[in-house]
Every structure is written in C-alpha cells, then in structure tokens.
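Researcher: Let's continue the batch. This sequence belongs to AMP-binding protein, and it's 555 residues. Same format as the previous ones, please.
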Amino acid sequence: MVDAIRMPLAVFYQRESNHPHKRYLVQPLTDGTLQELSWAEVGEQARRAANWLRSRELPQGSRIAILSKNCAHWIVCDLAIWMAGHVSVPLYPNLTAESVSQVLAHSEAALLFVGKLDDWPSMASGVPDDLATVALPLHAAGDYTYQWHDLQRCAPIRDDPQPAADQLATIIYTSGTTGNPKGVMHSFGNFGFAASHAIELFSVGEDDRVLSYLPLCHVAERMFVELASLYAGQTVFFADSLETFVADLRRARPTVIFGVPRIWSKFQMGVYSKTSAQKLDLLLKIPVIGRILGRRVLAGLGLDAVRYALSGAAPIPEALLTWYQRLGLEVLEIYGMTENCGYSHVCRPGQFRSGWIGHHNPGVEVRIAADGEVQVRSGTTMQGYYKDPEKTTEALTEDGFLRTGDKGEQDAEGNLRLTGRIKEIFKTSKGKYVAPAPIENRLAVHSRIEQVCVVGDGLPQPLALCVLSEAGRREAANGARSALENSLKTLLEEINGRLDPHERLQGLVLVKDVWAVDNGFLTPTLKIKRNVIEGAYAGQYGEWGSRREALLWQE
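Model: Same format as before. Here are the structure tokens for AMP-binding protein:
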C-alpha cells in the first residue's frame, strides 16, 4: 500500500537528480532521425522555460494553454508551467477554430504554446490577436510571438518549486459527447494520488517503455504516459504520424500500452486485411501452431513485448478481448472518467470475468445509488468544473461522491458491471426503456462493423446505425455484397434472440458516412457523439422504420 502521496514535481526532481543521464523522451524528427532527451535535459529545458514564464510577471495560477499533438516538448512545457506556478490548459490538436476560441476564452488563457498540428491554418483564427503564442521546437508553419529558443536563452531556475497538494495543476476540457466541453479542475494532489497508487498496482518501473499516441490532453494519456513516466521512470516514445504509427510501435516495442476500443479494433482489422479472418481464427485454435502464430501476429504489430495492455474510455466488445487472449495478449479493461483522473476500476491480470470490468482500485469507494447510478469517491475526485458551480453541484454529491452517469451493479467482491448510461437510455413509442450500449457491444463483434449507434427514441423498435469497416466497404463494392448482407442478417438474428422483446432491433441501417473526428461525428477520443448522429439521421427514421427490413443501405 502507498505510504505517502508524492507530488508530481517532487518526483520529477528526484529522477532528475538520481539518474540525470538516463534516456527519458524519444522524439521522431522531420528528417527521419530521433531526438533523445535525458531526464537532465528535460529538466534543463523546463527550468529555462519556467524562468522565462516568471519573467512575464503573470499572476500566480495563470492559465497557460498547450495546443499540440503529442511530442516530447508537450511534457517539457507542462513541467515548465508547473514550475512557474501556473496552471496548464491542454487543448485537443484537432479542434475547430470555434472550439479553440471557446476554451481559450473560458479558461482566460494568458499564453498559448503551439506545437505539432495537422491543420493549424484552420485553427489559428480561433486564437485572439492579443494572445501571445510560443512555437515549440516541432510546430506548424505560421506566425508566432515567440520561438522556443527565445525561452531557452534564459538561465534555468535553481530552486525546486513545491506546489501544495490542493493547488490547481490543470484544467482538462472534456471532449464533449453531449454538448459544450466543461473544464475539469485537478490539483497536484489528485494527480499524486492516482499515479502513486497506479504504478504500485501494476508494478511499472524504469525498464518499461510506452508509446504516446493518443492525445496527451486526454486524461487517460496524461495519466498513463506523462504521470506514469514521472512516477515509474519509464521511457516515453512518441508516434510521428498516423502513416508511421505501426513503424513507431515496432520501434518502441512498448512493454505497457493503453488504447481505446477503436484502436484495438483497428489493430484487428489491420491483421484481417492481410489474412482471412476465418483462416486465422482456425489456425489460432490449434494448440502449438496457434501460440506460434499468435506471437508472430503480435510481433508484426509491435506488441510482442507488452506486459500490461489496457483498454478504456468506452466499453470494449468481449469478443475483441477474447481474440487478443487467443493471440497471447491479455487486454485488461479499465474504467474511469476525466473527473476522477481515469482512476476507478481495472480488471486484474488473470481475473477476467465475462461481462464485468473488474475490481475498484486502491483508495476508491464505490456505491450504487437508488436509481442504479455508479458513484465513486477517492483522492482523485476533481475540485470541480472551472467557473461552473451549478454543474459541479450536479456532478458531486453532498458527501463528495462523483456521479458517473453510468448505470451498473457490483458483486460482493467489489467487481463492477456497467449496464448502460442513465442519460443515454431512450424510450420507444411503446413506452419501454432501452439501454443502447450493451446492444452496440454485441453488434461490434462483427469484423465488418467499425462503428455502431443504436437509436429508437419514439420508434416502435430500435434501429442500429452501422458504419462498415474499410474491408466491409470494399467487399460491398467488389461483388461480395450478398455474402456480407447474409452475414449481417445472421448476426442480427442471433442478437435479437438474446434480447428482450422491447429491445429487439427492427433492422440494421448501413449508413454512407464514415464517422470521424473531422466531420464532427466522433469526439477527439473517438467516442460517438450521439446527439450529432441523431441530428444527422433522425429525419430518415420514419422511412426506415416503415420499410420493416432487416438490412437497409442508406441511399
């Protein structure tokens, strides 16, 4: 058990002192080479930047924004902001200009660091003209007030600032699945509680390696990569781009990895694009050959050295977990929210139980409210929503429990099972309530369904809106449409056979759109935006419902 909660900067100073020359961050550069930064080099650059920030004489606790894809200097920048006594405000690197403007205005950002971005020109208009900008070493082309080398001309600070546990460290703006993002306030103590317990829970250490590829502004990557690296001392490798992702993964050969369900599904689909799913699944069932083949597949993905693999941010289909188990990789489901640093529940190695996430983490209290809502409380619970006391009161009970919005149940051993979202449950025209998430998980097992959203508010029976995978779209266009349709109809029949009458799907609708972050259907963390999907297709529900067909192609 953790004896004392250590603060993030104190842990960094210790590593900076104990092994200054040990490799810490590995960054791919634009010329194809790699830049390796030691703990001492990271400390040196952060301390110089902190001195520059101090020289601007901003009020203590000023909000400093970071807008960049993952890179080494994202972490250096975060450390510098903390050392200077300020609060970091990370932004997703694929926001619209309107969203950039909204977050910068709401947080009252005093400065903006800008790094790697795919489409800076479309975002730049969201930055106020009077807001000073600093270009990180890897940055998008554009006009900036300062360059990183301007900050590095300052002498490094020589003191070791020690923020109090209750001091605000960051404001994390949620990805907004149901509306405008809210600014979640986390203290250094919140981070310290989560990280101190988490590394002990998984026995992660200085010899471990991790690849940073999900947005660092998201709480999961922030905890699993940045905070875990400080507390465990692991080496952080950075992915260069989507195009080089597999090569980056093979280069890093991570020993620990976190992914959202869509990432784990993408890995599987990548394997299936090179070999028949039926053939692979058949070979994996053969005892000796299956083990050899499974290791070969994992090596091809760069996952053969993984000791701990985690999936979170959304429910993952059980069939996908089983597929990885057959390859020889146990993917453990993790449950948490931005509001509690993503620290709540996780399945322990070797304790997978069908339909259940796993046990609550050390230091976490759990209760199930009268309406079935899962409520949790721990040292990771947020301070509240920035400048929004009303929503803070809605999210936190009087005795400090966080209302998760998830319905669930727990057994006598403390294992948790989620049964749906309280606000996502809809009522059919027959007056029956339906929870879409469990049905969506069953549909997602099909190798040709990439995304799915079950709808039905006001309809006699629910409908499932489905986006085919690239392989599925290719089959439909190349003469294999009939076989694909038969497979999907069989799936529908099997699922309906296990559902209560009021839950049974009238049919599957194969929509033309590919849901993505860029077109607004997905959040930056790849969750579906139900309100956007409802708005895009609701006008066609009546027509689709009246046709009463098991399978429909959107025209």
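Researcher: Any comment?
Model: The two ends are 59 Å apart (CA to CA).
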